[in-house]
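Board notes, transcribed. Complex of a protein with nickel (II) ion.
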Amino acid sequence: MAVREILKMGDARLLRVAQPVPSSLFASGEIEALVADMLDTMKAASGAGIAAPQIGVDLRVVIFGGTGKNPRYPDAPEIPFTVLCNPVIEPLGDEKTSGWEGCLSVPGLRGEVPRFERLRYSGLDQTGTRFERTVDGFHARVVQHECDHLDGILYPQRVEDLTQFGFTDVLFPAVAV
Ligand code: NI
């Protein structure tokens, strides 16, 4: 379909609480086109995931995974390609783990963010089929990061120790920005 412009931090549209996908939209050409544009945009930027608000679409849709080994996250385990609409996240336990995150809306930077280590998430795919998964580690981190976008939250707001926030090429010289 098309590679869309990715909104950058500072754009007020990234701070909105996105609208639920209405039932009439599932299995429509409109949502298929949105998912296709999100996938093209994510792949073009080597993202691990992307949320609809990042391309200016005010809907609770995120996609992630399916890119095989990602040059921006070379040590991360692979995640199956997932389209997740109207997600609900339920943390399993209180344990949080700190890990480095980047964001296509915050180019060139990385920060260390505490996230729940284990969670269950549920939602619908683009056809309106409900599913749920129990995940941990990097998969759980990506889900939390992408779903935060739907509530207008960017990862720098989650960085607790600002000494652990900086430029990717300085922090990790071997990693693609
Ligand atoms: Ni992001």
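Helices lie at 29-44, 137-150, 168-171. The longest helix spans residues 29-44.
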